[in-house]
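Hi V.,

You were right to ask for the full record rather than a summary. Here it is.
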Amino acid sequence: MAVLAFPSAAAAKPRLPHGTVIAGVVVGDLGPRGAQAKLKDDLEPVYGRRISVRAGGSRTSVSPTEAGQFIRYKAMVDRAYELMAQGQVVIQVPLMRQLRKGALGRTVDRVAGKWYRAPRSASYRYGITHVSIRGAKYGRGINKRRLRKALVAEIRRPHETRIVKARFVKIRPAVTVKVLKRRAGTFVSVDRGSKIVRLFKHLRVVRSYRVAVGAAGYDTPRGMHRVQSKERNPTWHVPNRPWAGNLAGQTIPPGDPRNPLKAAFIAIGSGVGFHGTADLNSIGRAASHGCIRMRVPDVLSLYRNVPVGTPVLVR
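Predicted structure:
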């Protein structure tokens, strides 16, 4: 009966020659596994120690492996055996390692994210007498390019302290107050209490008008509206309401003495809008059926300054 004998893995490769040096580590008289173990024991304390990243009085740390370092222990041992097979008497193998860019980029992003503060753009909120403006605020970030460069330098040539300093950079807000004012268009507010209409341009009041607003039971509707349409010398489409009397449902042309809409009509919805009036005694009072009455020169001024779509806040 024949007995088959297989060579063991240990017998596959002899020990490295006495005096073999790999990456500055003496591994002579060791086999493949022993050589790799010796390399790790000696190289990890030098190349594998964590790197402290500091910025603005605080710190974090990363390992070189997280930053993409990959030491090729097996490849170095294999190279030593190749040289031995070629008959070289003195075997010296340099350090073999790679820096994986993807891992490095992810680590830089993660570290930078610890110190990131988003910028705040300027914003505003409409009010009756003024527009409230919240100023812009610079954000804070890390100069990623410099951090990446510093990490690579430290990984390639380790220092005893292994400290990398990151530099803060300011992040400009997308919209500053100056930009906000330039972009902001027209806005109109209607103060039912004081009977004042204010015209805003670029977030500041440019004109004020004394007006009449809706009487009790016919209140000018509160809330945010928009200019829906504009008409010069408007026709009056009389609402079919009891207060309209025998004119209810009729259409009264411009210039007709029965037409209370003088000079212009600026609609903000539901039949309500700004219009000129011949009843000047009503100005400064709650006297209309919901519309905002204005002196003729005033409504023409407003007409020229408010495009369709202009926000109108009524309070």
